[in-house]
Design goal:
7-stranded mixed β-sheet; two-stranded antiparallel sheet; 6 helices; 26% helix; 23% strand; globular
């Protein structure tokens, strides 16, 4: 691993309140004997990310009390109810003061994405201008990697639940797609029916 690769930080967006799950925050859902937020941070660590930040919002104090998140920096997003864009901005703001050259972003509610996909996307990092996205049968998905040169632009356009979608669409020609459909499943835990994915 090169020195630059050592500077790809991990970021878990885990602030959502689980509105369609009856107000159960996704970070606190159980999966394979642990909480989803613990699973997500372990995936980023195992995938080789250097330093993992976790953005908390809904029931943040409970997540802090119940979740074992060793080696993680916890970031509070007081505006989490306004959507994922605010969490992405909070995470990028927290990373701005570090020596990270890029950040690899994982959503807390996608447990079908494991360390193999994180590693594959992380290894596509080339410079602070890198924009990399996992793809599933050629369709862009998560995780995504943003070189530090893009953070200000992403933060400026991250609104509502769209996160970086507008920025990535605007810079589509610069996004390197890394196929991960053979090693990961990109389903979300959004509704009661989706809970069947949890073990």
């Amino acid at each position: 691993m090169t020195d630059d690769e050592n500077r790809v930080a991990g970021l878990v967006l885990a602030a959502g309140g689980g509105r369609r799950l009856g107000g159960r925050p996704k970070a606190l859902l159980p999966h394979r004997g642990r909480l989803l937020v613990e699973h997500a941070t372990e995936v980023l660590h195992a995938g080789g990310c250097a330093g993992v930040h976790v953005v908390l919002g809904a029931r943040a104090e409970e997540v802090r009390a119940r979740a074992a998140l060793p080696g993680c920096a916890l970031v509070d997003n007081p505006d989490w109810e306004q959507g994922m864009g605010t969490s992405l901005r909070a995470g990028l703001d927290a990373l701005a003061g570090t020596d990270a050259r890029a950040v690899l972003v994982l959503l807390v509610d996608q447990p079908g994405i494991g360390p193999e996909a994180v590693t594959r996307v992380r290894r596509a990092y080339r410079s602070p201008r890198s924009l990399v996205s996992a793809a599933y049968d050629g369709v862009r998905g998560h995780p995504v990697l943003f070189g530090a040169a893009h953070w200000a632009g992403i933060a400026a356009t991250a609104t509502g639940d769209r996160g970086a979608r507008a920025y990535l669409k605007e810079h589509a020609d610069a996004v390197e797609l890394v196929e991960c459909g053979d090693i990961a499943e990109a389903y979300d835990i959004d509704t009661e029916a989706d809970l069947a994915h949890l073990e």
